[in-house]
Design goal:
The structure is a homodimer of 185-residue chains.
Chain A: H1 2-10, H2 17-25, H3 36-48, E1 52-57, E2 65-70, H4 72-83, H5 94-100, H6 108-139, H7 149-184
Antiparallel strand pairs in A: 1-2
Helix pairs in contact in A: 1-4, 2-3, 6-7
The structure holds a DNA duplex (28 and 28 nucleotides).
Chain lengths: 185, 185
DNA sequence: TATCCCATGTAACTAGTTACATGATTCG
DNA sequence: CGAATCATGTAACTAGTTACATGGGATA
C-alpha cells in the first residue's frame, strides 16, 4: 500500500490533509494521485495506529487545521518500505490497452486521431515538467545536482518523467508514421 | 473502467476466463494485470448486461469450459471507449514515490542498492520484450509492419514498452552516476 | 502417489472514486 | 452578493487483492 507510505513521507514536516492534497496536485502529480476523501480517513487511521500524531492549529482563513506529524514508528515504517526494495510490476497503463485494440476503430483516420490526441497529451505533460524545472533552476544556481536532499530526490522523479514522456512522444511519432505507411500500402 | 473493455476486446474470439488470464500473463502483461477472481465475476456481469454471450465447451482435460463471445452491443461499447479518446493521467508509479523519499534511507550505499535493483528489474523486462519480439520476427518475415491488424496493434504496445523501459534504464544509469558524484562531493 | 495444469468460482478485505454535507473568510 | 479558497469530513459505490474451496486429468 503506497498511499500510506507517501503520507508518512510527507508527514516528516507538520502538514494537514489539505496541505497534502496540494502536494499531490503539484509535486507528486507525475506518479501518484489521491482525493481528499481518501486522505482524511487514512490520516486518522495512521494516527490510531500510532504512526502519526496530530495537533490543531489556527488558520488565517477558514476553520481550524489539523496538522499531522509522524512518530518514530512512522518513520521506521517508511524506511522498511524503502529497504524492502522497489515496488514494480503493478502499473496499469490504460492507453496501451486502448492501442492494443485500436484495430476495432473503423478507419485509419480514426486511429491517427487517437494517436494525435495521445501525442498532444504527452507534449503538454512535457511542457509542464519543463516549467517545474525552470522554477527549480531559478532557485538553485547549481541545478540539478547542487540541491538539498529533500529536493534532490524529488528532482530525480521529474527527471524520470522527462525521460519516459520523451520516449513516449518519440513512440507516438513513430507509430503515426507506421500507421500512415500502412494506410498507403 | 478498463478491465471491462479489455474483456470485450478479447472476447472478439471465443474465450474462457482461464484463457483470458493466460493472455493477461503474457501479451497484456506490459500494461495490465488481473486475477481470475476478478475476471470470472466480471465476465458474468458482462453477460447479464448483454455484452457477452456464453456457451459451454468440452475441454480435453479438467472440467467443462465456459466460453464467452461478445455481442454487437459489446463491440459497440468497446468502440465507444476508443472513440472517447485516450485514457491518460490515471497512472500510479510506486517506485517513483519511493525515489521521492529516498533521502530517508540512511546511506548512499543503501540508495545505490535501491537504484541498482530498479535497473536490474527494467533490464530484465527489456530482455523479456526482446524475446517476445524475436518470436514475432520469426513468424513474420515482414516484421514489424507487415503483420495482420490484430497483431500489428498489439505490437505497437510492445514497441511502446521498449521505448519507455529503455528510457527508464537510461534514467537509472544517469541517476546512479548522479548519486555517486554527490557522495564524493 | 504427488504435483502440476486445467477450470470455475466465492468471501473477505483493501484501495480508490464520486457525490454529498458543512461552514468560515476573502476578493472582486 | 457571489465565487473562490480554506478546511474537514461521511456515504455509497467501484475496482482490485488475497485467501479459500472444489475437483478432474496428465505426468513424473
Amino acid at each position: 500500500m503506497s498511499l500510506k507510505h507517501i503520507l508518512l513521507g510527507l508527514a516528516e514536516r507538520e502538514c494537514s490533509g489539505y496541505d497534502i492534497k496540494k502536494e499531490f496536485d503539484t509535486s507528486l502529480r507525475n506518479f501518484w494521485r489521491a482525493e481528499l476523501s481518501q486522505i482524511y480517513p487514512q490520516l486518522q487511521k495512521l494516527k490510531t495506529d500510532g504512526l502519526l500524531t496530530s495537533d490543531t492549529a489556527e488558520s488565517g482563513q477558514g476553520p481550524q487545521r489539523i496538522v499531522y506529524h509522524r512518530t518514530g514508528a512512522g518513520k521506521a515504517m517508511l524506511k522498511d518500505w524503502l529497504e524492502a526494495g522497489p515496488v514494480v510490476g503493478t502499473e496499469r497503463i490504460a492507453f496501451l490497452a486502448q492501442v492494443y485494440f485500436l484495430h476495432e476503430l473503423d478507419s485509419d483516420d480514426a486511429r491517427l486521431e487517437f494517436m494525435g490526441a495521445l501525442r498532444a497529451y504527452f507534449v503538454e505533460r512535457l511542457a509542464f515538467l519543463d516549467s517545474v524545472e525552470q522554477g527549480w533552476a531559478a532557485k538553485y544556481p547549481g541545478y540539478p545536482d547542487d540541491m538539498p536532499d529533500d529536493e534532490f530526490y524529488p528532482q530525480l522523479t521529474l527527471a524520470c518523467g522527462k525521460h519516459r514522456i520523451g520516449a513516449t512522444v518519440a513512440w507516438c511519432d513513430e507509430t503515426i508514421a507506421r500507421i500512415k505507411k500502412r494506410a498507403t500500402a
